[in-house]
Design brief:
The complex is a heterotrimer of chains A (about 280), B (about 250) and C (about 290).
Chain A lengths: L2 H38 L5 H5 L12 H32 L4 H14 L3 H15 L6 H25 L3 H9 L4 H12 L1 H17 L2 H6 L19 H9 L4 H35 L3
Helix pairs in contact in A: 1-12, 3-6, 3-9, 3-11, 4-6, 5-6, 6-9, 7-8, 9-12, 11-12
Chain B lengths: L3 E10 L2 E11 L4 E5 L6 H5 L12 E9 L2 E2 L7 H7 E4 L10 H10 L6 H14 L3 H4 L12 H14 L4 E5 L7 H14 L4 E5 L3 H7 L2 E6 L2 E7 H6 L4 H7 L5
Parallel strand pairs in B: 3-8, 3-9, 6-7, 7-8
Antiparallel strand pairs in B: 1-2, 1-4, 4-5, 9-10
Helix pairs in contact in B: 3-4, 3-6, 4-6, 6-7
Chain C lengths: L2 H39 L2 H6 L15 H32 L2 H16 L2 H19 L8 H25 L3 H9 L4 H12 L1 H17 L2 H6 L17 H10 L7 H35 L1
Helix pairs in contact in C: 1-12, 3-6, 3-9, 4-6, 5-6, 6-9, 7-8, 9-12, 11-12
Classes of the chains: A mainly alpha (about 280), B alpha/beta (about 250), C mainly alpha (about 290).
Chain lengths: ~280, ~250, ~290
């Protein structure tokens, strides 16, 4: 057998190995979703959504956790969107060449790599104890806002960067000030990209468990949180709690709650992907 | 009195000197063409008059640039005010990704003008001035990006006219257009000169000859010659001008 | 628009950007101050050398090594799974796969990356562990192996997409030169493309490691809560992150020594990930220069 033939065989072998690896990833995804659906889908009904947690798995529901997740998503959006978009605008349009901007940039890339549980420790001390928020929704949302800030900042910058320079020039040449140019031209033109980043960041926030556990979010909440200062649970913590119980019934509940959590996550991601594609098509002026 | 005046202007990009000791005077209600080979500094020089070079980090300039006798690089000058007086049209049409209507009224909106009647009037007047009204009057709410390249460029001119500048700077306004659109833009320039002072940078010698009253020839960062267009094209004083206008280099 | 208003807006935007600096300062301050308090009760030497971690028991030991060993073990398993598979998928997608296939697979991998980690934890405990127990008799219900494998699956998309980007950025001319010499796709991939994209691939691996070190829910659910200085992947262990969760779900009084242990553990975690992230940042900067 000459070397050319050997090389051909090796080449083909690697090709099939590549297909196998890719299939492995996709297969895992399939098993994963299949298993959860089989375990959990039968348990989902209106009662499951509107019931409170219970010691009896058949009676337990996710209402407080679901409402908690919605609260967290809303509050995090209110805190993180203005902060993140503002910071992104500042870095991209104002502070480009300064030393401060350089430090900010390194800092943000570092923050993006800090494990989420460390943010939990930060939130526990700063928001929970020093600012006296305890284990409230507000403390949780503040913590998650800091966690997703780098994502929003980076995507805002990318979106602004994609706006053609000619738009900016045209606006300046019309006598617009810097802020007018940003407000009337750059932000509307980059809206699709900015909103995509925001949705992805929020989808990340509602999937987070560890930082909220650390700040003291509860595993068992027998009430629906009604104000930002209330204590709370969220879906991931409810899931974690149910997984940790030995009874089979709770494992089924966990699978059912996972279906709902994944549904929310995938819908958010799907919307983000859709907006991104549409915006990328539109952005070619 | 001269409308625009530059005295002993030097421009540096970092350590590179790109404009070398240029002085020029431009009369009101005239069309002045800046010609010269690529990289000769004509666009950079044009952009001095509305301070568009300010956004280049390594830009530095010396000398005096005046409009109506006022130094525009004076500390008390507000760039935004200056640019309302001096409009600019760019090489590639750059309408905002908004409706035709919003493109025109942008300059008024940023000045805080909200009166619908004024805005409507301005839109009609500017589009008529730019010879675009008949083509777009029924689709003012449509996106400006749906217009053809030539229409977009005339829209950009209309947008500039809407804020009633006294000077219009044009940076190769027809070079990205097809011949027919290009001719329309030239016609427009010719009509506008009664009310505006126009400075146009162009690569196209015939265009310079057709539309301008005076022509300035730039070469390697220097102003070689500035004179009546007829003289520049028929009887230039400088040999390099002669070589350029007769197409021996460029 | 008045100049002062412009100025105020700029200051406001800058303030928003400064929140990120405050976050870093806050993290460092919180970890340092609490860790400092911790070390007023526990010597650094015993923290770094003691082989037992039992702060919640009567006989207290504060040796971080068992937690570090647990973190190391699960991370190692995760990378052993994610690196070969992730990189192979990247090469396959870049060199072999038809474009249409790539278009389908990439969003699917993105979905894999968007799944909350608590869900992966469930997967490890409810699917992978029972499956492995059939193959390996005597394997404990909580173990580093299934947590590590699932963590690896979680990291595959990260390594694949970053490596793929790095491979994609290699100039086409290099690949054509290799084919022009009569190389097969495999030879081109491993002798030309991978070396040319090596820094990007290294960055993806380092970030993958950093992700695994800081990952919490998968190990908290599936790897157990028994700090143990071992490299045996079949028995329950505890990672740094799991310990923090364990204390947080329990009832520990603020200001107590037990409370401070989570900050000391967090400090160790922060130092590891900080070093890893800075290495990757440095490699990335060097990499960018190379192509400019």
């Amino acid at each position: 057998m000459n070397s050319a033939v050997k090389n051909r065989i090796k080449d083909n072998a690697f090709k099939y190995f590549g297909i196998a690896c890719t299939s492995f990833g996709l297969l895992m995804l399939a098993i994963f979703i299949g298993n959860i659906l089989i375990e959990g889908v039968a348990r989902i009904d209106w009662d499951f959504i509107t019931n409170f947690p219970s010691r009896n798995p058949e009676k337990a529901g996710i209402l407080p956790a679901l409402v908690g997740t919605l609260w967290i998503m809303g509050l995090t959006a209110i805190i993180a969107i203005p902060l993140g978009v503002s910071a992104g605008v500042y870095l991209e349009e104002y502070g480009k060449k300064s030393r401060l901007a350089n430090i900010l940039e390194i800092n943000i890339s570092n923050l993006a790599g800090v494990p989420s549980i460390i943010y939990g420790l930060l939130g526990l001390e700063i928001f929970g104890r020093i600012l006296g928020m305890g284990g409230s929704l507000l403390a949780g949302a503040s913590t998650l806002s800091l966690l997703i800030l780098p994502i929003i900042i980076v995507s805002t910058r990318e979106a602004l960067k994609a706006v053609p320079k000619s738009i900016k020039e045209a606006s300046f040449a019309m006598g617009a000030s810097k802020w007018q140019t940003i407000w009337y031209q750059l932000l509307p033109a980059s809206f699709g990209g900015v909103i995509t980043g925001i949705i992805l960041a929020l989808s990340r926030a509602i999937g987070e468990t560890a930082p909220l556990i650390v700040i003291g979010a509860l595993a068992y909440v027998p009430f629906v949180p009604a104000s930002p200062t209330d204590e709370f649970s969220v879906l991931p913590i409810q899931i974690f709690n149910w997984i940790s119980r030995p009874q089979k019934g709770f494992a089924i509940n966990a699978a059912s709650a996972i279906i709902i959590l994944l549904l929310v996550t995938f819908v958010l991601n799907g919307v983000a992907m859709y907006l991104r594609n549409r915006w990328q098509k539109k952005v070619k002026w | 009195m001269n409308k625009l005046e530059a005295q002993n202007v030097n421009v540096y990009y970092g350590a590179n000197k790109v404009i070398n000791d240029i002085s020029i005077s431009i009369k009101p209600n005239s069309v002045t063409a800046f010609i010269g080979p690529s990289g000769c500094g004509k666009s950079t020089f044009l952009r001095l008059f509305n301070r568009m070079n300010d956004y280049i980090d390594i830009f530095k300039m010396e000398g005096k640039v005046e409009i109506d006798g006022k130094n525009i690089y004076d500390k008390n000058i507000r760039v935004e005010e200056l640019r309302k007086q001096i409009g600019m049209v760019f090489q590639k049409p750059n309408p905002f990704p908004k409706s035709i209507y919003e493109n025109i009224v942008y300059g008024l909106r940023i000045q805080g003008i909200k009166d619908k009647n004024i805005l409507d009037e301005t839109v009609e007047k500017s589009l008529k001035q730019a010879a675009l009204w008949e083509e777009v009057k029924d689709k003012l709410k449509n996106s400006a990006l749906a217009l053809s390249g030539g229409q977009q460029q005339r829209l950009c001119i209309a947008r500039t006219l809407a804020v009633e500048p006294t000077v219009i700077l044009m940076d190769e306004p027809a070079s990205a257009l097809d011949p027919i659109s290009s001719a329309k833009v030239e016609e427009l320039i010719y009509e506008l000169k009664n009310n505006y002072t126009i400075v146009i940078v162009t690569h196209n010698m015939q265009q310079a000859a057709r539309v301008s009253d005076t022509t300035a020839f730039f070469y390697m960062g220097e102003l070689i010659e500035h004179d009546a267009t007829k003289l520049i094209f028929t009887n230039p004083k400088n040999e390099r001008t002669q070589n350029y206008v007769t197409g021996r280099f460029g | 628009m008045p100049r002062t208003k412009e100025r105020l807006i700029e200051v406001g935007l800058a303030a928003a950007a400064l929140v990120t600096i405050l976050t870093t300062v806050g993290i460092i301050w919180v970890l340092f101050s609490q860790t400092f308090e911790f070390f007023s009760n526990v010597s650094i030497i015993s923290f770094l050398t003691d082989t037992q971690w039992t702060p919640l028991f009567a006989d207290k030991h504060f040796g971080i090594l068992p937690l570090v060993a647990g973190t190391f073990l699960t991370t190692l398993i995760a990378i052993l799974v994610a690196l070969p598979i992730g990189l192979t998928i990247a090469i396959y997608l870049n060199e072999y796969a038809p474009k249409s296939f790539r278009k389908i697979v990439k969003p699917l991998l993105e979905i894999l990356a968007a799944v909350p980690t608590v869900v992966y934890g469930f997967f490890a405990l409810a699917v992978i562990t029972p499956f492995l127990q059939n193959l390996i008799p005597g394997m404990a219900g909580f173990n580093a192996l299934s947590a590590g494998i699932v963590m690896g699956i979680m990291i595959i998309p990260l390594i694949t997409s970053m490596s793929e980007d790095a491979l994609f950025a290699v100039p086409m001319s290099l690949r054509e030169a290799s084919y022009g010499m009569g190389s097969t796709r495999l030879q081109t991939a491993f002798k030309v493309m991978v070396p040319a994209a090596s820094s990007g691939i290294i960055v993806s691996v380092i970030l993958g490691i950093s992700r695994a070190v800081g990952e919490t829910m998968i190990v908290a659910i599936a790897a157990g809560q028994q700090p143990r200085l071992t490299l045996n992947p079949l028995v329950p262990i505890e990672t740094i992150t799991t310990y923090i969760v364990q204390v947080s779900t329990g009832d520990v009084a603020h200001g107590s020594l037990e409370y401070r242990t989570i900050f000391a553990a967090g400090m160790a975690l922060f130092v590891f990930t900080f070093i890893l992230n800075n290495i990757s940042y440095w490699v990335k900067k060097k990499f960018q220069e190379k192509y400019e």
